[in-house]
Amino acid sequence: MINCALTGKTLQTPIYQSQGHLSITSLSQTYEGKTIVYLNEEIGHLQTKEIEDIETYYDKQYQFFNQSDEDDILYKVVDGKKIFRQEHQVNTLLSKINLEAGMEVLDYGCAKGTVMKRLAQQKPSVKTYLFDVSQMYVSLWEKFLPSDRYASYKTKEEWQGKFDVVTSFFAFEHAPDPLKELRNINSLLKDDGYFYCIVPNVYENTGDFIVADHVHHYSDVSLRYLLAKAGFETIEIDASSHFGAYIALGKKISQTSLKLQIDSEDLASVAKAAMETAEYWNALQNKICQFEESVNGQKAAIYGAGVYGSFIATCLKNLEDIQCFIDQNPLLYGTKAFNKPIISNNELPTEIKVIYVGLNPKIAKQVVSGFSKWQETISSILFL
Fold first, then answer.
1. With contact defined as beta carbons under 8 Å apart, do 219 and 204 qualify?
2. Is 173 helix (H, G, I), strand (E, B) or coil?
3. DSSP category for residue 264
4. What is the DSSP letter of 283?
5. Distance between CA atoms of residues 349 and 374, nearest Å
6. Dihedral angle computed from the Cα positions of residues 384, 169, 231 and 270, in that order, rounded to the nearest 10 degrees
7. Of 54, 254, 318, 356, which one has the greatest count of Cβ atoms within 10 A?
């Protein structure tokens, strides 16, 4: 059992436990231990049991593509043009909030700080700041910000009531105590200041459900609950502008918390979706194993070097049959996953006859349909 970090309620029985001894993190790395997920039906919130010594993990081990300040995650491909996630995040932020000259913006849980770096390039009249729970990115921050505009572990005392906007891009799913963090953010904002947050939408990107280091999986309902409890009026919960994610926009109010009336139908809908997601992942390992037996040791590849592809690799009994991973992100080429090379689709060896498609099931078939070459050489394809 665990206690819900948003309500304090004891959650007795998990709705999902991973079967093997290995779990996958959000960086597609393996973690020794089980992923265990609980549902709080009162606020429509999923919470995963924390990995051991989580503070040290984020301080020392969670290295988000920090080889350079340019590494990023491929967001989508439009008419052959690759658009990366942080590029899209900046453009979406600017479409939601009118950032005027002289405004001060803090990115809370900033990692490399690339989003604020790109924002400053587009809006040089806006003053940007950084905060993270680790010091491992300081060498990147100091390349474009003076030391009084970034902090690690604890926000600066002089930052109280300073900011017009505080942003958080894919950080609040990691926070063991999001309510504590959001109350701190409230104290950093000016009156009527804005909190702009992006977190994964597990109901659009189901792979988020199984990552061991995502402690929280929010719904529209639980995001509104969190904002209200920390003293924010919900301006918008947007589930469409960023694929597989919620954008939550809140405005600081004079009250320390608000009462939120939760619609029972909304709660029932979230609970149903949560249980269906748990059932899907509970059944998927057997599906992968059955497919592996059916292809009987043929040379294979995994399409997708992210969470889905990594999950497939942990389920296989004979990983030696996998020759390589395929991915569209050029930043991964020349690297390895599970000691297998990551290559582009154009480099796929002709002897590969089997493909395990490790992509979000909502887009997987559409993506693969564009690879006409596969129809000539591939005999068996598994979609999750």
1. no
2. coil
3. H
4. H
5. 11
6. -10
7. 356
What are the residues whose beta carbons fall under 8 Å from the beta carbon of 46, sequence distance 6 or more? 37, 38, 39, 40, 202, 209, 216, 217, 218, 219, 274
If you search the block for the tokens 């809006």, which residue do you land on? 123
Residue 286 DSSP code? H
Q: Under a CB-based contact definition with an 8 Å cutoff, are residues 215 and 50 in contact?
A: yes
Count Cβ atoms within 10 A of the Cβ of residue 318 and give its class: 0-12 exposed, 13-18 middle, 19 or more buried.
Answer: exposed
Structure tokens at 306: 């992210």
Dihedral sign, Cα of residue 194, residue 153, residue 170, residue 106: positive
Amino acid at 87: E
Kindly report the pTM of this predicted structure: 0.85
Contact between 325 and 342 under an 8 Å Cβ cutoff? The reply is: yes
Per-residue pLDDT of the chain (384 residues), as tens digits, is 999 999 999 999 999 998 778 888 888 888 888 899 999 999 999 999 998 866 666 665 665 544 445 556 666 666 677 767 788 899 999 999 999 999 999 999 999 999 999 999 999 999 999 999 989 899 999 999 999 999 999 999 999 999 999 999 999 999 999 999 999 999 999 999 999 999 999 999 899 999 999 999 999 999 999 999 999 999 999 999 998 999 999 999 988 888 888 989 999 999 999 999 999 998 998 899 999 999 988 999 999 999 999 999 988 989 999 999 999 888 899 999 999 999 998 888 989 999 999 998 888 998 888 887 887 889 999 999
How many CB atoms are closer than 10 A to CB 349? 11
Q: What string of H, E and C letters represents the secondary structure of 59-111? A: HHHCCCCCCCCCCCCEEEEECCEEEEHHHHHHHHHHHHCCCCCCCEEEEECCC
**Matching residue, tokens 């200041």:** 193
